[in-house]
């Protein structure tokens, strides 16, 4: 027991370092601690909730609210923005401990420990807990509900209920896992109670709130593996050694039918759902641990080859972690973008045109409306960006009541344009209808004079 606690404390310390490192480096570089537009959208929603405002004045619609936003609002009021880093850190540690003890139900303690270590080093762990989003809270609640369900505790019900009103995808995937386990162990009563209260709670919450979530999306390699730039993605290295780990237990598949079926199902689901990738990452962590222990226990004719193979795996894991952490550290918003948006905040009420990736940042930091994401708006945005026809461009800007155009260095370097005088860039520099209001190394803000 003492050895187990020491191992777990070591993992928690390691997890804390991995979680906090991106925050520390971003703080040192003078950038905002948290990255990603979704965080700043939810921050704006949660700040409105704390003031009992349910209408989004920047989007002219009701706020899209889940239980996550109420939790966010509470911690913002209680801790303030300066100490909010504590929240994802604590949720990360709770999730790690829950994952470790869930593993103990199905694996030897050694395998459970190594599975947890692989989980801590995975890019998905860093995504979840070196930031704060809907999935950060949902994965913690989900793991707690599964752990208590395995312990046959009725306390699994309230955690499952909270999961259901935090994320619909987590709710559905939790049901699948619990269903498989209930058939495997022939225990259906607790599963049915969880299901009943989860569905009822979701319906009640849905009735009173504008709860929405993208459950199915198109598959793309760019959004599946972190090596291609995916925000919620799997490590290609993890996927590879997990696949080898799967082959290593395939020979003993007679006693692992439910386990193998679950992995296959979650792999299929992960192609079209981001949350399923998080669940698949749990299984990949287990399979990677199985493969690593298989290599350690195996008798090698040449010990040096064994050492080299193990070193290669360790280096691969550390490299994938470092690569994703670096990606996170360099993510938006940077200090230059924030400075530009703070300048824009003092300008009169306006609609701002930029790449859709910047919309949430514009709304939060400048408190200005943006060209909202819709099929019609996307077509208009694309036409404006590529147009060199002054009459057509000004007509579209007037039609959408756009007053400001925000351009970032990323937009000029392939995100929108590839050449200096391409499309709208030519008009901005050569027409009296546009005036440059702000300029820095990374950001330009143009005012439309018409």
Word description of this protein:
The structure is a single chain. The protein has a domain at 335-448: Rossmann fold. The chain is mainly alpha-helical. Strands 4-3-5-7-6 form a five-stranded mixed β-sheet, with helices on both faces. The chain has a two-stranded antiparallel sheet with strand order 1-2. It is globular and about 75 Å long. The protein contains 20 helices and seven strands. The N and C termini lie far apart (73 Å).
Distance between the termini: 73 Å
Overall average residue pLDDT: 89
Strand arrangement across the biggest beta sheet? 4-3-5-7-6
Number of alpha- plus pi-helical segments:
20
Give the helix level as a range of percent.
55-70%
Tell the overall outline. globular
Poorly predicted runs are: none
Sheet/helix structural class: mainly alpha
CATH fold descriptor of the domain at 335-448: Rossmann fold
Look at the structure and give the CATH class of the domain at 335-448: Alpha Beta
CATH architecture of the domain at 335-448: 3-Layer(aba) Sandwich
- Total strand count, please? 7
SSE succession? HHEEHHHHHHHHHHHHHEHEHHEHHEE
Content of β-strand: 5-15%
Radius of gyration: 24 Å
The biggest sheet amounts to:
5 strands, mixed
